[in-house]
Amino acid sequence: GFLLTLNADTNTYSDFNQAKSRGGEQHVVGVWDKSEDLYYDALKDPNHFSFYMLDQSNVQSKVVYKGTKPQDFEKSEKLVLVGEMRDDVFYASKILMKCPSKYNDQLVEVNLDGTVNQNNY
Question: What is the per-residue DSSP string for 42-86?
Fold first, then answer.
């Protein structure tokens, strides 16, 4: 299984600029930029979700995810994207969300096939 914690050393993560220069699959941590619109139309294309994220260096990038919009995406406090940067767009193959919890911290992993895994860290 794939377990990733947000408490891990952030040196294992890239920001958008590093993801662009390194190429290949990268992990980028950040937050959803709520000042920008997100796009998801389940009727037109249920496998296309896009939004803007600010990475840990406060750099903004458009993110495209070829899957359904994760449930409770708007409630997420922090995101970890797994994917690659092409030109100025980050194409995510996986979205991990840290959602607020009254009793514990959980990391929710959303896979392209729509399955969801929850892990405590």
Answer: TTTEEEEEEEEEEETT--EEEEEESSPPPTTGGG-SEEEEEEEEE
